[in-house]
Amino acid sequence: MSNMFYVAPEQLIKDRAEFAQKGIARGRSIVGALCDDGVVLVAENPSASLHKVSEIYDRIAFAGVGKYNEFDRLREAGIRWADGTGYTYSREDVDARALTNYYAQYLGDMFTEGQKPLEVEILVAQLGSAVRTTKLYRIAYDGTIADEPRFAVLGGDAETIRQRLAESIPEHQVSVAETVRLAVNALAGPERSIRHDELEIAVLQDRGTRRTFRRLSDDDVAALLE
Amino acid sequence: MGLPLFDAASDPGPSFLAFAEAAGLASPPSTAPDTVHATTVVALRCAAGVVMVGDRQATSSYIASRDVRKIEAADHFTAVSISGSAARGMEFIRLAQLSFEHYEKMSDVSLSLEGKANYLSPLIQRNNLTTPLIVLPLLAGWDPSHQVGRVFEYDGAGGCYERQDFAVIGSGTPFAEGALRLGFRPDMSVEDAVELGALAIYEAGDNDPSTGGPDFVRGIFPMIVTVTEDGYREYSTEASAAVFQRIHDRRRESGGVAGGSLR
Hints:
heterodimer, A: alpha+beta, Glutamine Phosphoribosylpyrophosphate, subunit 1, domain 1, 5-stranded antiparallel sheet, 24% strand, B: alpha+beta, 6 helices, 13 strands, 35% helix, globular
């Protein structure tokens, strides 16, 4: 016979939050920021093939930190949701806020009811259009959504990096190159520099094509940061 | 639709069709009557890639539309065109475009050209073996891994066949194919392949009531598409008009007969 012990709900939530935070803190961080003509996503990622930043739809990108298998499954679900919604209705009906809400519900459900909470934090970025605005939504492991007006930082060292970026980023939006530089400096901090091939950078930018997501190659990154 | 999460055993993978059916988005076609047809398209291999030319007319018992697009970019390196039921054909193109992009986003790599060609087989089977609304596509594109243009045609049951020279679909096939058989040479330049493809469509439009030729009155011309190392490119209306104007002028000079040579 198993013994059931009473655990106060406050304690249960606290334990689960600590568990999730610990998992997320093990990984490196990601910065998402608006620039003057789009959105920049910068991740510190030593792997060139296990991406943290990905394309979801024409104007929507995804970034995840924490356990790779957990956020990658959310990425796949997001692509399926977006392609399915666009197929059923129209491409312009695919909205980042709706996707964000689904992610938040799922993460919230797993946090309270799952075997264990997901050890991930994700970012949904949307490039504005005639009918939508440019958005950065950060979704925490417990389903909390933050609508970030200027930039978002996710991952273990988020608070320090957020402070560094808040101090250095100007009021007005600046170019892609400048935004990337600021993000990389904030990620690295004063004592450290990050090698170009350990940076994973993608942008959402209008280039006259339907799809606006572009992954920067190592050469692109080197050229941008020169 | 909620967030489509699957467990590892029932995960549909990067196939959009498998996902759409698992999620109930795409149901197998019904058997509603449909008499609108969409009609002659040719695809030719040439030295620098492939050329596709297609007419613009949709026909039921009368002309239903004069400016239908029967050729579309399935992605940057692939053109896909349709003949047969217009309703099913449009859906077919949409599904093909979405499937290739879906695969690319899910797996972070593009499907190979052969992979794309094979992917269409079950789509055709699914449609043609369950309804009388037959659709036949053509797929042609630039194969980046082999650095050549390639052309694929299909039979009604979904069989996929690669052609080394050219392929034709639609009701004007006999007339278009005649011109292609006489004029085709391996390693033609893109320009020569465009001229020959246009001539084939001109012939089909001239002889087949369900194929539209160049419409100088309304300024509607067959679509001309090239796919090369630089990707999918569509001729502007003016550029297509110029190609067909040349054929038209030659025909006027000869009093309407091809006159024993390809002109």
